[in-house]
């Protein structure tokens, strides 16, 4: 929605509901002790509305908000995203009590907000979308670029780790091993807490640390000094790039590009060969809309690949699990903002694969495969049926142009930059 708002010149508005959970009526019978100073003998209070701390409060509030949005003309898009609501002139995105409105004209947003107030919902209007869920959003009106930064979170991470120097890259070239024989950590900081902050940061505005964070996240339990060194290296890298963030500079064409890469058994020369983790391959992919990354992921794959081609093909199948739902979501939103027939004829998806064997196998007709691919083709070729109907093609890309390379392995300084 941020990308489309920039490409199509949509108006935006952010809304925060005041003490949100207290708006929703409560269905169950819940009784609470009377507050000190107001108590009466042998009496308790019966709740009419939800309170913070009740397990049903979040669900009740969402149902209450959804009901009010439906009453004023918004339809929930449960098939693509239950938190997406679309009316004739406006799009509404909901995250708990934070709401974003997008519309071709500001007056439609103002009308929707006024109707919500008439429903008795207390809310605070904020300016156009400048920050959401801890992410600062800065727009450059001249170039059309949007920059997402999380300086506050990065400062918390750096302070928690206590790092002093900086690093040019977030991860060492060698993969991070289990190090089962290493000493126990000194416990100067909460490893799991820092990993949690890093996961939130890498998932919202810093895909450049996605691989490094994925590595250290494997060792939340049983971490060793080598893992401490790895997580501190991420902190050192962030200390030197605290003001940096994801830059979205959308193109005019409404297309999806997916860059897929895999690292075949990258832990083989690092882990003990008796450890099953040593033979697992890593998948990395980045999905872009209008040339801007929307989804990125770096993870070890469950299926054990016996060749580079198999690892690449497994990664390709894994990426399609995110590509297909995103296509439906993008089509739904596209029709809502009026790109209609032109959108349907021009919209296409391109999967960029740097392994020629995997690329050729993906383009084969159903029932056909190469002699050595039958063992994994039957498991991973499910996505073929979706390629032509959704205008999706798999093309070869040179390794030096593969954008997902940064998500599968630790790179040298020059390659990383």
Automatic annotation (TrEMBL):
It holds the Pfam family RVT_2. Gene3D superfamilies: 3.30.70.270, HIV Type 1 Reverse Transcriptase, subunit A, domain 1. Residues 7-166 form the Reverse transcriptase Ty1/copia-type domain. It comes from the Eukaryota. PANTHER family: GAG-POL-RELATED RETROTRANSPOSON, REVERSE TRANSCRIPTASE TY1_COPIA-TYPE DOMAIN-CONTAINING PROTEIN. This is Reverse transcriptase Ty1/copia-type domain-containing protein. It comes from Cylindrotheca closterium.
